[in-house]
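Q: Got a minute? One more chain.
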Amino acid sequence: MAAQQIVCSFFYTFIPIADSLSLTAQSFLPALMMTNNVNNDNNKQVRAKTLRHTILNFLKAAGLFGAALASMVATIPLLVRFFTSDPAVAALVNSVVPILFCIFVFHGVFCASEGLLLAQKDLIFLGRMYAAYFVVVPYFMQRIKWMASTTTTAATGAAGVVRLQSVWIVFIIYQYIRISAWVSRVAWLQFKTERDAFHNETML
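A: Always. Here it is, folded:
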């Protein structure tokens, strides 16, 4: 479908922009953790405070990236005319713009939180989550494909809108589940780090 190809072109153009957040976290956070990786309570507390400050800074940067990406997505209705002269195709592309906006406004948070997890080597959690996604997401995509192939309608254009939006709705649900899981996991790891660092001080 022409509309899907255009949407994917925009999607894959915008999606790498926030990857720098993940790469930066993976580059600098391990060195930051190793600097204070001495087995005494004072250094553990310094590391916990530094990690908290760093995580908050990454999330602030993620918000800026999300705002910038959402602004770019908002320009798609103005740019789509350079990709197609067919008003029906342009209408299909524009129908997906609100979904793309919701995806990209939090994409910076996703990249930052995943980078923070990778930097802290939380690979078992990430591996298990992606193994589950590997099964669940294709299942729902295949369900949409099956429904599209078995549903007939007189209005071909209307059917196209439903099919195109449905695919991206599945993706936004997948994206929001990942964001919730990643952010919750980062918060949990930080909670454990602070608990281990400050438990002796609390007990005194």
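A: Helices lie at 2-14, 19-35, 41-73, 76-79, 87-104, 107-119, 123-150, 156-203.
Q: Perfect, thanks.
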